[in-house]
Amino acid sequence: MNANFETKLMQLLDQNKDEIIKIRRYLHEHSELSFHEKKTSEFIENYYRDLDCQVCHCGDDYGIVVDINPDKN
User: Greater confidence, 33 or 50?
Assistant: First the structure.
């Protein structure tokens, strides 16, 4: 990872710290059994679709692959 990318990433994480904590708390409060994370998968899918990212399902349909294009935003 180059220093410029790492610096930018850390700045973005710091700027979004409160939202990241909110998401983590929500997911921990609504935990599901391993390999049965239907609501977690839906939450992640909806979150990233709202950010105009490409979301694809994989595996047992609870798996999520998100294509985040940093040049798009």
Answer: 33
Report DSSP state, residue 4.
Answer: H
What is the DSSP secondary structure assignment for residue 71, as one 8-state letter?
Answer: T
Question: What would the 3-class secondary structure string for 7-66 be?
Answer: HHHHHHHHHCHHHHHHHHHHHHHCCCCCCCCHHHHHHHHHHHHHCCCEEEEECCCCEEEE
Cβ-based neighbour number of residue 41 at 10 Å: 19
Dist. CA 38–CA 41, nearest whole Å:
5
pTM across the whole model: 0.73
